[in-house]
């Protein structure tokens, strides 16, 4: 039985939308309600969500600005639906232009809301399947159908959790991923504070994929935060060195300090102030 959808809801002031969390819970969804924009931005950076619902009347900021902020902070594949009472064409166009995937206006029945959410999820899943068969970072490719990796054309077999972790890192290259967000994505729950499962899985992935600056990819340990995948454009194996800029990605600034135990694996720690 598939896991229920995990929904993030930014609650607003519209009276007819107050019942949405209860409706979603009765329909079998997991719904995390955020009361402020700041809490939402922090929440989506720490946990994985299948969809984001945003009320159009917010107490602290414009809903359009929230959508733009989320789009800057997260990858484009997080489905966003705006819920509002203003059914004007101008409001619809403004929401879609800001990055929303759908706009549901006015009081709607539970069936309509759930049907629109299901349709949005199907569309997002289909887009990922069509566009995301290959995830690329430096000289690496991840095949999401066969769930294997390649390095310079050489096929590398991964365990299910190794592949899930690699896909999460590769599709968020240059971004700091919090430990809690990684744990939720891989294990679907937070690990005990003293657990070494995440560190062990990260170490195995580095060894399996042979991640290193020489191969164009390294993992940065961000103290007290999590991990970040870095792409080295100056590596001799980087696609741009071989005349293939289509596979190249932007390289974030690297910070100082090599971890002695992981120096051979290209792991680079940075301080909190560098985040």
Low-confidence stretches: 242-275
The helicity comes to 25-40%
For this structure, the CATH topology of the largest domain is: Arc Repressor Mutant, subunit A
Largest sheet: 5 strands, parallel
Total discrete domains: 2
Strand content: 15-25%
| CATH homologous superfamily descriptor of the largest domain | Winged helix-like DNA-binding domain superfamily/Winged helix DNA-binding domain
Shape: elongated
What class, by secondary structure content? Answer: alpha/beta
CATH class division of the largest domain: Mainly Alpha
- Tell me, rounded to a whole number, the average pLDDT: 78
Kindly provide the radius of gyration, computed on alpha-carbon positions and rounded to a whole number of angstroms: 20 Å
| Major sheet strand order | 2-1-3-4-5
**End-to-end separation:** 39 Å
Number of helical elements = 8
* CATH A-level architecture of the largest domain: Orthogonal Bundle
Number of strands: 13
Series of H and E elements: EHEHEHEHEHEEEEHEHHEEE
Task: Name the descriptors.
single chain; 275 residues; alpha/beta; Rossmann fold; Arc Repressor Mutant, subunit A; 5-stranded parallel sheet; 8 helices; 13 strands; 34% helix; elongated; disordered C terminus; Response regulator receiver:Transcriptional regulatory protein, C-terminal; transcription; DNA-binding; Sig_transdc_resp-reg_receiver
